[in-house]
Amino acid sequence: MSAATKDDETYPRKILEYMEGFLISKTLFAACELGVFDHLEQAERPLSAAEVAQGLDTSLDGTQRLLSACAGLELLTVQQCNDQEVYSNTGLSSRFLTQTGAQSLYHSIQYNSKTIYLCWHYLTDAVREGQNQYEKAFGVSSKDLFEALYRSDEEMLKFMHLMNSIWNVCSKDVVSAFDLTPFKIIYDLGGCSGALAKQCTVTYPSSTVTIFDLPKVVHMSREHFVSAQDKRISFHEGDFFKDDLPEADLYILARILHDWTDERSSQLLAKAYRSCSPGGGVLLVEALLHEDGSGPLTAQLYSLNMLVQTEGRERKASEYARLLTAAGFTNIQVQRTGKIYDAILARK
Ligand code: SAM
Ligand code: ASE
Question: Does residue 280 belong to any structural domain of this protein?
Fold first, then answer.
């Protein structure tokens, strides 16, 4: 037995780390929400805790502790200057944690902090009951999933920002996992803020992409996310369960099926199959579980999140393949990207 294993027997490092993992999340959330990373970015020089506290209108003592913890997490660098500590962003923080960073995750962090964290307070109940926790977490009693998720315009916009923000770091891999050049007319079903649609028009300049989503989502997307100058992106307002789907060469369903039960997923895929042009296809974008259930950890945790927040689950490639086959699709190909989201292409 190695020394490390022996040490683990008497000192449960991993368990201690997991037990207090939320302390790390909350430190990150608070630093983002208070604007620590934005303030340090704008200052363009290292700042002392006193300067940060003054700039953010926060207590000196609390700010000192928060900056010190962020340095411990390697989200800030600390230097000594005239006998006091001064802080600056790391490269990672200025890129991903400032609101204006090129690949900002600021909005993902906000949604995790303000919505997901609150839902996860009821994870135990969710597992016991096998259903989402909107009623307990937010007093929402609607049976309609997206009425609960979009319980106010503000909450809908926050969700759209969350959806948008992860594509800042994952969209290229997903869109180029397969050569989609042959598909000229693409519909992004539940296309939301349009981040994936935009990446499609960049990678496939000879295709047009239409974002199909609920009317109020389309309005918000037009207002906040997709500029009218984006001539190759159009919108279609509708309900993909109730309305007919327009004909297309390719339907993209990114993070759609994981919201729904097998029954509803099958309904949607059958509809896509009917409307799909001959030789066309469907591209699923999801966080795939390994076939033997051993991981990836992110997908396993996301599946718990789908329990707490939706009616769905994360699935294995074989589970998606079964749904696709039942709807009539063939030639099912799976591409793992090694990042959060993977891709499955199937043909009519
Ligand atoms: N595809 C986007 C992405 O991956 O960033 C957004 C995924 S989000 C989890 C689900 C999307 O489906 C939302 O934009 C939501 O508004 C849309 N949606 C939910 N129910 C719908 C329905 N009945 N008809 C059309 N769109 C719907
Ligand atoms: C959904 C995706 C998400 C519905 C609710 C959601 C995400 C968070 N809440 O389709 C994105 C993935 N992140 C997690 C933690 O699951």
Answer: yes
Q: Is residue 166 part of a domain?
A: no
Q: Whose CA is nearest to atom 13 of ligand 2?
A: 302
Same domain, 76 and 208: no
Task: Give the ligand at the shortest distance from the Cα of 209.
Answer: 1
Dist CA 219 CA 215 (whole Å): 6
In a domain, 122, yes or no: no
What CATH number does the domain containing 18 carry?
1.10.10.10
Please give the Cα distance from 156 to 163 (Å, whole number): 11
CA of 195 to the centre of ligand 2 (A): 15
DSSP 313: -
CA angle 289, 253, 151 (to 5 degrees): 95
Q: Are strands 276-286 and 248-254 parallel, antiparallel or unpaired?
A: parallel
User: Ligand 1, residues 107, 108, 161, 163: which to mutate, most atoms within 8 A of Cβ?
Assistant: 163
State which residues form the domain around 34.
Answer: 3-96
Q: List strands edge to edge, sheet with 330-335.
A: 233-237, 208-213, 185-189, 248-254, 276-286, 342-347, 330-335
The pLDDT tens digits along the chain (348 residues) read 445 556 667 899 999 999 999 999 999 999 999 999 999 999 999 999 999 999 999 999 999 999 999 999 999 999 999 999 999 999 999 999 999 887 889 999 999 999 999 999 999 999 999 999 899 999 998 889 999 999 999 999 999 999 998 998 899 999 999 999 999 999 999 999 999 999 999 999 999 999 999 999 999 999 999 998 888 899 999 999 999 999 999 999 999 999 999 999 999 999 999 999 999 999 999 999 999 999 999 999 999 999 999 999 999 999 999 999 999 999 999 999 999 999 999 999
Task: Assess whether the C-beta atom of 260 lies below 6 angstroms from ligand 2.
Answer: no
Q: Whose CA is nearest to atom 5 of ligand 2?
A: 309
Active-site residue numbers?
258
Ligand nearest to the CA of 164: 1
**How many domains would you assign to the chain?**
2
